[in-house]
Amino acid sequence: MEHYVIILDMSDGRRSPARRAPVPIADTGVGTLDRAVAVLEAVERGAHTFTRVVEATGLPRSSTHRLIKALERHGYLASYGGLGYRLGPRLLRLASTAMRELSLRDVAHPVLERLARATGESAQLYVRSGDVRVCIDAVESQSELRTIVPMGATLPLHAGSAAKVLLAEDPHRARHIRQNAEPLRFARDVRLVASRGWASSVGEREPGVGSVSAPVRGFHGEPVAAISVSGPASRMGRADVRRLAVAVTGAAMEVEAALGVSPG
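Request: output the structure for the sequence above.
Response:
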């Protein structure tokens, strides 16, 4: 549930508020965007009426009016009648998502360290970003023969165990599945995530590399991330995969518990 706090302005209007320094307008070469950001910053600093926004930004009234209306339409500003403008619900959702990702990485890192030590393999944390998955944290194995996935690496959704986990509940996953070299097998593995809670792969994304992944679920049961271990295919036999599956699903549950997600 989303909670919003509305701050009431108790001024009776008889005193003129102290003028603040005008909002600096950055010059990135994209003028409309620069001015829109200046309007948001003005509102964030307390310029809640149209006149105050004009004064704070120094922008022409006609331009300010158009920018405010556009930002309202996109959900970045919201009008509360006599209370004036406030930052809108879309900005709140974006901020919430950003904070959740930071929190996810913070709580997951020690789990990744324990997972890497316990399995002897490299451990990673992936989140989905549109049509790709991004590694937002990783701990390397201490083994001389190991896999390395750098933080920030962008990987496809049509190959690898983490991709299967992140696609498991996507109603539009067929377009990604079709890009796999063996779409029927890949589709079967994606479906199996729902029943067994993990996925594996060998040589799908890189020859000679295998991985096992499990979903980290959010408050509504949706996969918000994939926690993985990866290593040489020679260490990814059936018995190894079963052992690693127990480890990664346990690690995923640890992360969920640290995030305050209730079991089940």
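The two ends are 19 Å apart (CA to CA).
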